[in-house]
Amino acid sequence: MTFFKWLNLFIIFSSILFATPIFSDSTSSFTSNAIPKFLDLAKEPKVFDWMVDIRRKIHENPELGYEEFETSELIRTKLDQLGISYKHPVAVTGVIGYIGTGLPPFVALRADMDALPMQELLEWEHKSKVPGKMHACGHDAHVAMLLGAAKILKEHEKDLQGTVVLVFQPAEEGGCGAKKILDAGVLENVSAIFGLHVLHNIPLGEVASRSGPIFAGNGFFEATISGRGGHAALPQHSIDPILAVSNVIVSLQQIISREIDPLDSQVVTVAKIRGGGAFNVIPDSVTIGGTFRAFSKESFMQLRHRIEQVITGQAAVQRCNATVNFFDEEKPIFPPTVNDGGLHDYFQTVARSLLGADKVKGMQPMMGGEDFAFYQEALPGYIFLLGMEEVSVERLPSGHSPYFKVNEDALPYGAALHASLASRYLVKLHQEVPVVEGKYHDEL
Ligand SMILES: *[C@@H]1O[C@H](CO)[C@@H](O)[C@H](O)[C@H]1NC(C)=O
Ligand SMILES: *[C@@H]1O[C@H](CO)[C@@H](O)[C@H](O)[C@H]1NC(C)=O
């Protein structure tokens, strides 16, 4: 007998024993009418001030990917205080928390924890205390919002119709922390995963998302083009890698303009170039490096293939040799982030009832990458953008700016959305289990 059949038996028994069906939507506090209450709850000082305090503590002490030791400890302290059990360490610094029955179904919520290697330039009371490190992508707020959701859900634990899995993930910024979390096997029986990202130019209280590809897959490359150095006035005795690299860079742009479907957006950018050091010397070699982006795995792999061909082929035209490195070991490719279509419909229903129909917007795909994509390769996943902008107050700088600023008034929205998405999803999973009552009564 499957677990769900046992569960149904249990529900029927419980219904008989307690007269009211404990898992029925009509008595659960997670009916659609009740959802806005999560937002009210998240705005109360006991949740809001608590989240603000956590967010500021993490902001003052930013830690890079796989070094989030103190951030991880802070998270565990808060989970201990809430009486929430967890697994640690997962993926070096990651923490996986559990709220609910401890039984299936499982639904996961994800927050990334890492900071960026850059100096904060904004002067304020809770500025980064670590030189050269900064939370400039809002991950401090993401952690605070997931803890806020945990606090709300813990208060409603008896109403949860399964288990909410809290994923505090390390190393989103290029470290593939999501992949390490998956490899650890902790999401094995999880039915769906939700994530969010704050955005500076979406109004506060609004969300934006889309079905299908939302963020591009991204990869990096570095190439060394070798010639033969010599006197700059006697080019006939040298093989000039500077001229070869010039042709390589131009040809790389022609892949995008001449070879791919203009409606299948892709990018190749050569972002660095290093070679030569004197006015009158042709150098031995030149190194270039950059990034490439695409919205499907096929386009991405074709682009990667052509980048290598064009670099080596174009170098050869100029009598140079070239080697191309895609950092497969250190920086596995981020696949495109593709939102599940069914979860999109579900998200819209929940977000509309929480925020109001006019606050739930669509969006164009963005070329930035997200390691949330790894989860979506393994299970249905959905990520959305959470607005922070209040034009009447100020214009916020974009993510990865040294002046990046989180509008803390966005925290309750993130916490309430997380809590609603997870709790309602467990209800939905139960409703989808086919119940043939007569049959089970016969078995009883
Ligand atoms: C997933 O479910 C299977 C079958 O019930 C179980 O053996 C396994 O331990 C579960 N994995 C996790 C991570 O809970
Ligand atoms: C390119 O590689 C070949 C084979 O290793 C070598 O013979 C040749 O000298 C190299 N050319 C340059 C310009 O480095």
Which terms summarize this structure?
444 residues; alpha/beta; eight-stranded mixed β-sheet; 2 domains; Alpha-Beta Plaits; binds 2-acetamido-2-deoxy-beta-D-glucopyranose; disordered N terminus; four-stranded antiparallel β-sheet
Describe this structure in words.
The chain folds into two domains: 23-215 and 336-443, 3-Layer(aba) Sandwich (Aminopeptidase), CATH 3.40.630; 217-325, Alpha-Beta Plaits (2-Layer Sandwich). The relative contact order is 0.18. 38% of the residues lie in helices and 22% in strands. The model is unreliable at 1-27 and 435-444 (pLDDT under 50). The protein has 444 residues and is an alpha/beta fold. It has helices at residues 3-18, 35-43, 45-60, 69-82, 139-155, 177-183, 241-259, 297-317, 341-355, 372-378, 411-432, 437-443, and strands at residues 85-90, 94-100, 106-112, 163-169, 190-203, 207-208, 212-215, 217-226, 230-231, 266-274, 281-282, 285-294, 321-325, 337-339, 360-361, 381-389. The radius of gyration is 26 Å and the shape is elongated. It has twelve helices and 16 strands. α9 (341-355) packs across α11. The strands form four sheets. It has an eight-stranded mixed β-sheet with strand order 1-2-4-3-5-16-6-15, sandwiched between helices. One 2-acetamido-2-deoxy-beta-D-glucopyranose binds next to loops.
